[in-house]
Amino acid sequence: MTHPRVLHVGFLPIGSSNNSGLTLGSMFGDWPSDRLLQLCVRGSGGDAAGSVILTPGMVAPVDGIARAVLGRSLRAGPTDGLNHAVSRQGRNIPWRFRARLTASVINDIGPIWIPDSLVRELAAFKPDVIHSLLGGVRPMRLAYGLSKRLDIPLVPHFMDDWIDNLFADGQLFGLAHSAVDRSLSNVLSRAPLCLTIGDDMRSEYAERLRRPCVAVGNSVDVAEYQALGRRPSAQSEPRRLRYVGGLHLGRADVIRSVARVLARRDSQHRPWQVELCVPEPDIPLARALAGENSSVHLLGSVMPSDVPQTLVDADAVLFIESAAPSINRFTRLSVSTKVPQYLASGRPVLVVGPEDQSSVRALRDSGACYFAGDGLDGDMVHAVMQKLEESDLLDQSLLPADTVQWIGERYGVQGTREKLRSSLELAVALGPA
Predict the structure, then answer these.
(1) What secondary structure letter does DSSP report for 93?
(2) Are 264 and 378 within 8 A, CB to CB?
């Protein structure tokens, strides 16, 4: 096998402890370190794949100007769990938070400058191809500029449907979204093919972007989960319905709806407890959810290495996506990191979310899912919970052989890594579009 020499352009390094970092960390897990160089805005403070170069501050001169003008209003503060690809129309936004949002838009669409010294440093690595998640105007301009200066193809890797939704609220009088369209057009002019997070996105983007697309998404090592011993809840304890993930993008509201249903169930049923394992920034919100409803319990944060055992020990696991139209427009084609992890755990999955969302569709296709709608119909959630309780899956601790094969074919680590490698190798052979 030939591994191309890859220049990855991103915000945080591959392997960082956020969703994108962990997903990419698995994809590039066996990539030779001497054939991977990363150009990142920030370092992760931990181990990263390959070598990492941080972008000089001079690359985005408007960033420093905006921070100097807006000053204290840019200090970190509460967020609403959304991003610039989700509409905030109709929301009451405090002026300080609005100032931070405006500054981040200005920073993203501001001009960039790629110094010759940076180009020489990157050229010394002799990269064959640029790989990037993009996600904003600045990274698109940077990746496009480097692709031209180094004369190598650029392969965008899409994980959310941000290309139509970024700055769609008319930020800066429509200038921001126009910058997205122009920058994406430039990126595609250097892209012989595109990578996507799943098959739904692959099909839609191949037609929309008029480029060959390959689904290279999340993966899981099923054998790692199968090797774990399970520690189920005792009959005297509430059953564990565990959620492992972030509470952003409206997910806290969905958990609140599920918890209300569980709290109303009569005493004839063995009670369920929603146990939350969330990232550190979401701890205050998770604590508030637990304070609102006695059926919610905060376990805290778990290290990525502890996720498999945390899931295997659950009685069932909870998967949620918001059905709010403004959020679903952004997430509808995404396939969450949790999908293969939840399936590999061997636990039944209670799924609450819009039925046209790609993660929900993937879980329903697996046969291990109990779909309870979008969470707005409490009676439906209750009925599905009743069906789950009557299932033999609650007492099973091993995955059937055909299920293991099914998960491996779709989400196996080696297969995912090979699709990434062969796609980037093909991009090098095809050259810039």
Answers:
(1) -
(2) yes
pLDDT digits (tens, 9 = 90+) for 415-433: 999 999 999 999 999 999 7
- With beta carbons less than 8 A apart as the criterion, state whether 289 and 299 touch: no
Q: Is the pLDDT of residue 22 over 60?
A: yes
Residue 234 backbone phi and psi in degrees, to 5: -80, 155
What band does 218 get if pLDDT is binned at 50, 70 and 90?
very high
Q: In terms of Cα–Cα distance, which of 79, 85, 78, 52 is closest to 159?
A: 85
Closest CA to 314 of 293, 337, 338, 330: 338
pLDDT band at 47 (very low <50, low <70, confident <90, very high): low
How many Å separate Cα 246 from the centre of its chain?
10
Q: How far apart are CA 401 and CA 282, in angstroms?
A: 37
Q: Phi and psi (nearest 5°) for 51?
A: -95, 150
For 366-380, the pLDDT digits (tens) are 888 999 999 989 999
How far is Cα of residue 117 from the mean position of the Cα atoms in its chain?
33
353 burial level (CB within 10 Å; 0-12, 13-18, 19+): buried
Token digits of residue 260: 């209300």
Report the pLDDT value the prediction gives residue 78, as an integer from 0 to 100.
58
| 3-class secondary-structure state, position 272 | strand
pLDDT value for 114: 94
Cα separation, 399 vs 404, in Å, equals 6
Please report which residue ranges of 321-377 form alpha helices under DSSP H: 325-331, 338-344, 358-366
Tell me which H or E stretch contains 10: strand 6-10
Question: What is the total residue count of the chain?
Answer: 433
Distance from C-alpha of 266 to C-alpha of 7, rounded to nearest angstrom: 57
Which ranges of 71-94 does DSSP label H, i.e. alpha helix? Answer: none
Q: Which of 294, 295, 272, 276 is nearest to 286 (CA)?
A: 276
H helices of 293-391, in order, are 307-312, 325-331, 338-344, 358-366, 378-389
